[in-house]
Amino acid sequence: MNASVETPAGEAPEAERSRHSRARPVASWREHHGWSAAASLRRLAARPFGTLLTVAVMGLALALPLTFYLLLGNVQHLGDALGRNPAIGVFLQPGQPGATAQLLAKQIGERPDVATVTLKTPQQGMDELSKMQGFSDALRSLDDNPLPYVLVVQPKDGLDATAVGHLTDDLRALHGVDMVQDSGSWRQRLDALLGVGDRAVLILAGLLALAALLVVGNTVRVDIASRAEEIGVLMLVGASRAFVRRPYLYAGIWYGLFSGVLAVLLALLVEWSLAGPVAQLSQAYGGTLRVGGLPPWLLLAVPLAAAALGWLGARLVSAWQLRKAA
């Protein structure tokens, strides 16, 4: 025996109408967003020369901080290759036996801020000097080897100038150490210059981002002013400000997105142009240099950030223009 539950007359159609009434505004909102995005793109394509000029100006403005960031990173790589974090030479007192030198090397190597310790014997030092021009004859006249044991201490990667300075002071205080050779002052100058460069890139990026925002804002302002009559008619028939300004917001997004892509392409072009000269310089330094490229996350973030910047510029200007027109 089949059992069924009867629905009161009119209840099902009423529920269906309620669902349709709730879905209709969402579908209309989504449809208008799609129309606004397509319409704004068609408007940009209708005036290609003006669009290309705006995108080119914004793209160049956004490419400048990317280029400086790329160059700053390569300067840092060059400093590393030329000895930004060089080994520290620890010269023991003359006459120290080899066993004492080995014990001291083991003690230093156990420090957490030391990567490696290499022991150079007096004979190895003498062999290195004999290979230098002008020293071979003078060394033959010596009765004995006056060179001491030398410990070549390599600090761990990532240590700043302050940490390396503390390490150098500790090495000088060790018993049996005669002299510690370290180019700490040069390292501090390089770190300071790189810090100034980082700050300059941030300031430049902020100023040029503001310039890009103003370019988008002025372009959208001119576009709204040229369509003042059309906007007035829309607002007379009851269109909301959000409805009217939506195409202009998408125009700002398109400007920002296209200029961000152009900025990334220009930065990649600069990176590619540096590859050849850096390769030649790397050969001169035994292949230790390389081009430090822009990270992939930054290449992806620039167009998205530029699109958000374009939206913000269009949002501010369109809200101000529509308030004036109301």
Characterization of this structure:
The protein is an alpha+beta fold and 326 residues long. The chain has two domains: 43-81 and 190-325, no CATH class; 88-182, 2-Layer Sandwich (Alpha-Beta Plaits). 72% of the residues lie in helices and 7% in strands. Strands 2-3-1-4 form a four-stranded antiparallel sheet. The model is unreliable at 1-13 (pLDDT under 50).
Task: Produce the secondary structure layout.
Blueprint: H1 11-46, H2 48-81, E1 88-92, H3 98-109, E2 114-120, H4 122-131, H5 136-140, E3 150-155, H6 161-172, E4 177-181, H7 184-226, H8 228-236, H9 241-284, H10 296-325
Antiparallel strand pairs: 1-3, 1-4, 2-3
The proportion of residues forming helix, as a percent range, comes to over 70%
Globally, the shape reads: rod-shaped
Biggest sheet architecture? 4 strands, antiparallel
Number of domains: 2
User: How far is the first residue's CA from the last residue's CA?
Assistant: 69 Å
The percent range for strand residues is: 5-15%
Mean pLDDT: 79
Defining key terms:
Alpha-Beta Plaits; 326 residues; four-stranded antiparallel sheet; 4 strands; alpha+beta; rod-shaped; disordered N terminus
Short overview:
With 326 residues, the protein is of the alpha+beta class. The chain has 10 helices and 4 strands. Strands 2-3-1-4 form a 4-stranded antiparallel sheet.
